[in-house]
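PT: before anyone asks, these are the final sequences, not the draft ones from last week. 278 residues across everything. Please model them as a single complex and drop the result in this thread when it's through.
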Amino acid sequence: MSRTKRLALMAALAAIALTIFVAEAQLPPPVPIPGIKLGLSNIVTLVAMAVLGRREAGAVLAVRILLGSVFTGSVSALIFSAAGGLFAYLVMCLTVNLFPRKLLWVVSTFAALAHNAGQLAAAVWVSGTPSILVYAPALVASGVVTGVFTGFGAMYLIRALERLNRGPASK
Amino acid sequence: MFSALFILGCGVFLWLKNTGDAGSVADIWLDGELIESIDLNAVTIPYEFEVSSEYGSNVIHVSHGAIAVTEADCPDQICVAQGAIADSAIPIVCMPHRLVIEIRGEP
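LR: through. Structure below.
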């Protein structure tokens, strides 16, 4: 892939992630437990990491988190989003080459768990109330579900992208 | 392995939900600071008050032995959906407004 093509793909992925993030923020929360949501935009981070690389995925993620908090108007949620995103990104970087592409959903699940851990750590730190750690088991359970779900979403998207790259339009 | 984690997480959370002490004092934390402590057993007539900060505002409903958030100007409304709490098991959290309400045992 040429540098220009990579840059264009990064920009497109960042835009897609941002759109998914803003759209998801409009949905009511699935369960009345703070910190739980599907995290569909993480599909894009995973795809960026698998198709482009670690640095590119980090850039896409950083753009999505920063602009996402601006576009959803909840700048106060930025710190939780950023802490979760950073933890998830680090875990993704460490595990992405440990598992074959067929097991990308495992990477995704570890990342989701790390995201929830980072988010909860930030919440404890900001609120000064360690008692909210009782939500940890619920966040572990939800991290497994959302991680597997977004992981399979990313795998389908990668497969579709590869088919697109093999198409007659590209050389 | 992950499904075991899922079941364990759900199980532990449900278990924690039922292990709270029937406390009497509600502490209201805003942005890391304790702004209000209410002895819920001393409340006879239910009342409401508003807690506001730069992040947003919540209406807190206090009654004998229980406390709830009844209104919030945040989009997710998680704290409102949670309803009233009467024991120390699960605190009410409104993270976008940095508001936490927890109940503890002794006054």
